[in-house]
Design goal:
heterodimer, A: 226 residues, 19% helix, globular, B: 93 residues, SH3 type barrels, 2 helices, ribonucleoprotein (chain B), Sm-like protein LSM2 (chain B), U6_snRNA_Lsm2 (chain B), mRNA processing (chain B), LSM_dom_sf (chain B)
């Protein structure tokens, strides 16, 4: 999976003018919106183009400069929102935050302008999509929501695991037994010396892979002990 | 799964979602899904100086994987139910 904003070029565009989709991996076109300007970070808006939303990516192609465009995977979109306040931006728009690659390439030498621009692209963390018809904003927002939900984190994310607020929690490698045997005398909310359960809950990390299987618990509301 | 059920109970309450990029957004929890994607309404950014662009945003969708913490209203925590649920999760998980 590729983080951040990508450049689309002529070879990413079909003869029909639509962007090439990765059909083999199940990518489908969900929505096309004409007359949309794009604003990358603090740059000036780019001339109207067409927005393509697929089941995996958001793509924008310029109507004027054929072969010019951008794409960002839903994996990389941290947040999206409808922005209507003219003080923040003059035109109502869809606002996106993009999770970019770590800025580790600061020192790299990019003599080629194209490469330098691509390097800049990978640092774009904010993007606005400005449809000429602002009545479409809510529809677009809903489509973004639906497509984001089609793209959960891939399996194998190694950030799983419980996290309590107190880093002094002993890691004895035998936590199941610990939880069961200590349970009555030492309820889990108090187990690490933190006497405020609400506070403990605040500190729990919620991106745990184990929380992704919605069906399992519903099928077995009463778990048998293992 | 426990947290999906848990957060569903908080719909309609005010929460503060802190993202891994340090942006913290306060708002009314509109909905949550099984991936802990979160929709907020009536949002406001906690540190407005740092993220002026977010000022205009009144509702937003936050990808579950970028959430670091969710701060809950104190009265939104039913400690007895949560105790029970976490014990069951610990046994069955």
């Amino acid at each position: 999976m590729v983080l951040g904003l990508q450049r689309l070029t002529e070879q990413d565009i079909e003869a029909s003018g639509h962007p090439c989709l990765d059909v083999a991996r199940g990518e489908e076109l969900v929505h096309v919106q004409r007359d949309v300007a794009i604003v990358l970070g603090d740059r000036l808006p780019e001339s109207p183009g067409t927005l393509y939303i697929s089941s995996r990516r958001v793509m924008w192609l310029s109507d004027i400069n054929r072969g010019k465009g951008y794409a960002v995977d839903f994996f990389s979109i941290s947040l999206h929102a409808v922005s209507r306040d003219p003080e923040a931006y003059p035109s109502p728009c869809i606002y996106l935050q993009i999770e970019a690659d770590a800025f580790e390439d600061d020192e790299s030498e990019c003599s080629d302008t194209e490469f330098a621009e691509d390097s800049d692209l990978s640092r774009v963390t904010e993007m606005r999509l400005v449809p000429s018809d602002s009545n479409q904003l809510n529809t677009l927002f809903d489509i973004f929501c639906q497509c984001a939900e089609l793209n959960p984190e891939p399996e194998g994310d190694d950030e799983s695991g419980w996290f309590f607020g107190d880093p002094g929690l002993p890691d004895d490698g035998d936590q199941n037994e610990w939880q069961l045997s200590e349970e009555l005398a030492n309820p889990i909310g108090y187990a690490n010396g933190n006497h405020d359960l609400a506070h403990s809950v605040l500190q729990l990390q919620i991106d745990d892979q184990r929380f992704e299987d919605a069906e399992e618990m519903e099928d077995h509301p009463h778990h048998e002990p293992n | 799964m426990l947290f999906f059920s848990y957060f569903k109970e908080l719909v309609g309450k005010e929460v503060t979602v802190e993202l891994k990029n340090d942006l913290a957004i306060r708002g009314i929890l509109h909905s949550v899904d099984q991936y802990l994607n979160i929709k907020l309404e009536n949002t406001r950014v906690v540190d407005q100086d740092k993220y002026p662009h977010m000022l205009s945003v009144r509702n937003c969708f936050i990808r579950g994987s970028v959430v670091r913490y969710v701060q809950l209203p104190p009265d939104g925590v039913d400690i007895d139910i949560l105790h029970d649920a976490t014990r069951r999760e610990a046994r069955g998980g």
